[in-house]
Amino acid sequence: MKRQLDELVARLGARSVSCFLSTPTEPGTHAFVAEAVARGIRVLLPISREDGLLDWSVATPDAEIGEGLFGLPEPVGEVLGPIAVNDVDLLIIPAAAVDQRGMRLGWGRGYFDKTLGSMEKCPPVYAVIFDSELLDDVPRDVHDQPVTGVVTPTRTVPLSAPSA
């Protein structure tokens, strides 16, 4: 997984990215985050808020990881507000599945859809999934936001966004 994410960051020339900390049931992002920070890439990690928005924290080599609002791994440290993500060159987000049109099925809380929908100038957005989670079609709701592509443990797939 780390190799695919490293190649994506290099190809896009990203110097600042947002990335989530994976759970044991998702493709791993922890090694990518640690190495990106070591290489001088600014990595923002999400922190869930009760109001449905995401705060952000800058990843550091010695960052403490705790349990967030929903039991997910989240950084413990200085908290930046929701608009901090507006400065990244690339968003790397979780997904349960993504379809060939770029529609992402999340975990039902809408955090990333709200974030993407509120950004003035959204950079490329790639969802991290297993190869088997790239499907022909996923359910779509009016608030759902498409992704630019997916990153799996074996490949990176650019996708076309659906037409309005």
Automatic annotation (TrEMBL):
Its EC number is 6.3.3.2. The keyword Glycoprotein does not apply. Gene3D superfamilies: NagB/RpiA/CoA transferase-like. One of its GO terms (molecular function) is 5-formyltetrahydrofolate cyclo-ligase activity. It is an enzyme of class 6 (ligase). It catalyses: (6S)-5-formyl-5,6,7,8-tetrahydrofolate + ATP = (6R)-5,10-methenyltetrahydrofolate + ADP + phosphate. It holds the Pfam family 5-FTHF_cyc-lig. Keywords: ATP-binding, Ligase, Magnesium, Metal-binding, Nucleotide-binding. It comes from the Bacteria. Its cofactor is Mg(2+). The keyword Cell inner membrane does not apply. Belongs to the 5-formyltetrahydrofolate cyclo-ligase family. NCBIfam families: MTHFS_bact (TIGR02727). PANTHER family: 5-FORMYLTETRAHYDROFOLATE CYCLO-LIGASE, ATPASE INHIBITOR/5-FORMYLTETRAHYDROFOLATE CYCLO-LIGASE. This is 5-formyltetrahydrofolate cyclo-ligase. It comes from Microbacterium trichothecenolyticum (Aureobacterium trichothecenolyticum). The lineage of its organism: Bacteria, Bacillati, Actinomycetota, Actinomycetes, Micrococcales.
